[in-house]
């Protein structure tokens, strides 16, 4: 959709989950998945693992969680 609107790919690789959180701030798991070009299940798993390693934290919201870099 972005390309159809006139955007051009940068040619840079997609960010890692942690890089995405540092760049964009608080994100839902589905947003992380879209930015990193991974499945939502993989994004959730990586976010959970990063939380176990104290690199991210889940912030409860009405319908789930937003994730933030710790």
Supply the key terms:
70 residues; alpha+beta; 2 strands; globular
List the helices and strands and how they pair.
Elements: H1 17-24, H2 29-36, H3 40-52, E1 56-61, E2 64-69
Antiparallel strand pairs: 1-2
Helix pairs in contact: 2-3
Give a summary of the structure in a few sentences.
With 70 residues, this protein is of the alpha+beta class. Helix content is 41%, strand content 17%.
Rounded Rg:
13 Å
The proportion of residues in beta strands is: 15-25%
Low-confidence stretches: none
Based on DSSP secondary structure assignment, what is the total number of beta strands?
2
Q: What is the distance, rounded to the nearest whole angstrom, between the alpha carbons of the first and last residues? A: 32 Å
Any idea what the shape is?
A: globular
Element string (H = helix, E = strand): HHHEE
Describe the protein's architecture and organization.
The chain is α+β, with helices and mostly antiparallel strands. It has helices at residues 17-24, 29-36, 40-52; strands at residues 56-61, 64-69. Strands 1-2 form a two-stranded antiparallel ribbon. The radius of gyration is 13 Å and the shape is globular. The N and C termini lie far apart (32 Å).
């Amino acid at each position: 959709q972005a390309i159809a609107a006139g955007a051009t790919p940068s040619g840079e690789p997609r960010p890692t989950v942690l890089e995405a959180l540092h760049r964009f701030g608080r994100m839902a798991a589905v947003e992380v998945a879209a930015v990193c070009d991974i499945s939502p299940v993989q994004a959730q798993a990586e976010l959970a693992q990063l939380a176990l390693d104290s690199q991210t934290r889940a912030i409860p919201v009405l319908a789930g969680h937003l994730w933030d870099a710790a």
